[in-house]
Design brief:
101 residues; mainly beta; four-stranded antiparallel β-sheet; 8 strands
Length: 101
């Protein structure tokens, strides 16, 4: 069974038992999460898409906060003494898909 789920404005292709990193979700480790924005479901060759989809994806939070790689934005204007350095690390949540119903 396969589904395409929308989480925080991004689409993810998920299967049962799969573990993936998604944009940060509220909750603690071990909490159950229901993802209701299902865009596409493939049930052994029977395909549902669009408004006809009547499914919910249930997942468990495995790790509540995972930091991505550091991204540095450096601005400089030569011969002017102007330098700016900004950096950030995007926060992710690791979830495990339990069922697609």
């Amino acid at each position: 069974m396969l589904a395409v789920v929308k989480i925080a404005g991004q689409q993810f292709k998920v299967k049962e038992g799969q573990s993936l990193y998604v944009p940060h979700l509220d909750g603690k480790t071990g909490d159950k999460v229901e993802l209701k924005e299902v865009l596409f479901v493939d049930r052994d060759g029977k395909i549902e898409a669009g408004a006809a989809v009547n499914a919910t994806v249930k997942a468990e939070i495995v790790n509540e906060l995972v930091q991505g790689d550091k991204v540095i934005a450096f601005k400089m204007k030569r011969r002017k003494g102007f330098r700016k350095k900004h950096g950030h690390r995007t926060h992710y949540t690791q979830i495990k898909i339990e069922s697609i119903a």
